[in-house]
Design goal:
Helix content is about 35%, strand content about 15%. The protein is an alpha/beta fold. Helix 4 links the parallel strand 3 and strand 4.
């Protein structure tokens, strides 16, 4: 009977996730434009670099960037991202940022881009937003409308379990569950460009994201804070066309590299260069 009740809960959760995902999936496309960077003042202290990871990941995603940034004399912190929902995650980061003194360069990967877009609004210490294979949402958008036509996540439109393993979690609001990427898709699509053995470890260690991460976003910080966007040309999760569209409307200074969605792991050198460009321009 216990197994039957649990199976029934999973079936109900699957239907609930379908109800969340099906109405909001859409295709976005466009071309990117680059805004001219401002010249930073001389003899200013280096800004603090705050790194925010995405869904199905943790702070260790930034290990390569942290080593390089520290070597170059930056104070770096990889902020916690609880993955409990966009509203809560953004509020958590907003409070975290309030403890950082001096100028900040705020960096987000993947879902972390949506979190920094919400959390930095109105914070005068945040001098630049850096997006790495990331969502750059506008007000009232859900990230599910921004993945692009060819994203490997699109099959979740009709069957969430084709992409995610769905797991109930204690205290979840009615109809909400935790999502884990299926191992095969994590290795071949999400982590393309990462050595397969390493991708398998990352898949086993992935942090779950509540379906509440699909909540609509608030007033975007990129309306008032200069932004930089690094786009992976082999990204299977957020397609390059969708990333270009988001970068263009945010008037972001835009860069590309030949990487998949986890370019922060496969090519931390390029990611670090873009972060340091933003720090020199705006810090």
């Amino acid at each position: 009977m216990k197994f039957a009740r649990k199976a029934h809960r999973i079936r109900l959760a699957t239907l609930a996730v379908s109800a969340v995902l099906i109405p909001v999936f859409a295709v976005s496309a466009g071309t990117a434009t680059a805004a001219a960077p401002a010249t930073a003042g001389h003899h200013q202290p280096k800004p603090t670099i705050v790194l925010v990871h995405g869904a199905w990941a943790d702070a260790s995603s930034w290990s390569g960037e942290i080593r390089r940034l520290q070597h170059d004399g930056y104070t770096v912190t990889s902020a916690p991202n609880p993955l409990r929902g966009l509203d809560d995650d953004s509020a958590y980061l907003e409070d975290f940022l309030s403890t950082v003194t001096g100028p900040i360069i705020l960096v987000g990967h993947s879902y972390g881009g949506a979190v920094i877009t919400n959390a930095a609004t109105g914070n005068p210490n945040v001098k630049a937003l850096v997006y790495v294979d990331a969502f750059v949402p506008d007000q009232n958008e859900s990230i599910t409308t921004l993945i692009g036509a060819n994203s490997f996540i699109v099959p979740a439109l009709t069957d969430p379990t084709s992409v995610f393993n769905l797991v109930p979690y204690p205290g979840a609001p009615a109809g909400q569950v935790d999502t884990y990427l299926r191992t095969d898709l994590f290795i071949t699509k999400f982590a393309n460009g990462v050595p397969r053995a390493q991708a398998a470890v990352l898949a086993a260690a992935q942090s779950p994201a509540s379906t509440l991460v699909f909540q609509p976003t608030g007033v975007p910080a990129w309306r008032t804070i200069p932004s930089y966007d690094l786009i992976g040309l082999r990204d299977n999760a957020i397609t390059p066309d969708s990333q270009r569209m988001m970068a263009a409307r945010a008037h972001a200074t835009t860069f590309t590299f030949n990487a998949g969605h986890l370019g922060l792991i496969s090519d931390p050198g390029t990611v670090t260069q873009v972060i340091e460009t933003a720090a020199r321009d705006r810090g």
